[in-house]
Design goal:
The chain is an all-alpha fold and 237 residues long. The chain has ten helices and no strands. The longest helix has 33 residues.
């Protein structure tokens, strides 16, 4: 029985990796590079569905699934609200920090879905557009990687802050990909490198923002998530 359960868990793990690292990026790329700009909403919807599937696969037939989904919904709401509050400071947002904390404490699937849905939910205020699927994948992938490297981040503050800085760079690089596609209609390496250099001030702002919000929020939110998971037995592997 244990061997069967391990086999099922392994299959789910590989499915999660396939969805997040292959299927979703391909969907985002096809939606932006091949189809006309007007169907960005459909691309975003596809990414939402694909983002949720790994979570539902992990949580199926679990007693506390409603509580777990409620926790994720609250984290998404906090993340989106934080983006609203700091709307007056471009590039200075707590979304990445909350997404990273989620990934570290609740797992890679939770990290991805919180990052991904935080983008689409907050964009109902900031404005939906062809950039939305890229934001969804960027924040989601950052949360996913935080879950993958959780053992190296959870109780090691310097590692966490370094990851926060790298997350700012990664977010900028992925969003510059969208800008390149938007300008040229296809991926132009020369244009991409130029945009990356031009975006350095914004990238530095992302880095500073992530480090500041992780310093402020990590222990507070992390302690709450730790208590919730232990007390109610949530998000246990």
């Amino acid at each position: 029985m244990k061997d069967i359960l391990k086999c099922k868990d392994k299959k789910k793990s590989w499915c999660t990796i396939f969805f997040i690292t292959v299927l979703i990026p391909i969907s985002v790329w096809i939606g932006s590079a091949i189809f006309p700009e007007r169907i960005y909403a459909l691309t975003a919807l596809i990414v939402v569905v694909l983002s949720c599937i790994p979570v539902f696969m992990r949580f199926e037939k679990r007693e506390n699934v409603t509580k777990e989904l409620t926790v994720l919904a609250v984290l998404i709401a906090i993340s989106a609200t934080g983006r609203f509050i700091f709307a007056w400071i471009p590039g200075f947002k707590p979304v990445t920090a909350i997404t990273v904390i989620t990934g570290v404490y609740l797992g890679r699937e939770a990290g991805f879905v919180v990052g991904s849905l935080s983008a689409v939910v907050s964009n109902f205020y900031f404005g939906q557009g062809p950039w939305t699927p890229f934001q969804m994948f960027s924040w989601g992938f950052i949360g996913f990687l935080a879950g993958v490297f959780a053992s190296h981040l959870k109780n090691k503050k310097m590692n966490l802050l370094v990851y926060g800085a790298l997350a700012g760079i990664l977010f900028s690089l992925i969003m510059d990909t969208w800008t390149t596609l938007w300008v040229d209609g296809s991926f132009n390496l020369a244009r991409y490198l130029t945009l990356c250099i031009a975006a350095l001030p914004v990238t530095i702002e992302y880095i500073i923002s992530n480090i500041v919000f992780l310093i402020i929020m990590y222990e507070k939110i992390g302690d709450v998530l730790e208590r919730v998971t232990v007390k109610y037995g949530l998000f246990q592997q």
